Amino acid sequence: LNSTHSMAARPALGEVSDLVSLSELTEDSLLGHLRARYEKDVIYTYVGEILVALNPFKHLDIYSKEVDASYINKNKTEMPPHIFAIADGVFQQMRHTGKSQCCVVSG
Q1: 16-52 pLDDT, tens per residue?
Q2: Dist. CA 60–CA 86, nearest whole Å
Q3: Which of 1, 3, 29 lies closest to 16, judged by CA?
């Protein structure tokens, strides 16, 4: 691969919803993508099974009943990262296994 090709294949900052998919996951690349998403009011980003949430310090219209309903019975990769995706995934896992589930929220 030449340097032109590898540069073209690199996703633009903020365009990746799961940072595990980056070919190079460093502190700088992680923070760069999070910053770019935050500047677009995209406050949720996956890092594998972890959902990173950044406080927007303002109201975002992302918690309506319509948004909530759009995440029901969806695979994590079908929708943009959101706390509703985590909640539905845990609920679906509980229904599938019949066992209690747990989400860790840390801040």
Answers
A1: 999 999 998 899 999 999 999 999 999 999 999 999 9
A2: 19
A3: 29
CB 29 within 8 A of CB 22: yes
Beta carbons within 10 angstroms of residue 85's beta carbon: 22
Amino acid at 95: R
At residue 52, φ and ψ (nearest 5 deg) are: -95, 130
For the entire predicted model, the pTM comes to: 0.86
Tally of residues, the chain: 107
Could you give the CA distance from residue 107 to residue 88 in angstroms, rounded to a whole number? 21
Residue with tokens 């998403």: 37
Both tokens of 71, joined, read 């995440």
Q: Please report which helix (H) or strand (E) contains residue 50, including its range.
A: strand 50-53
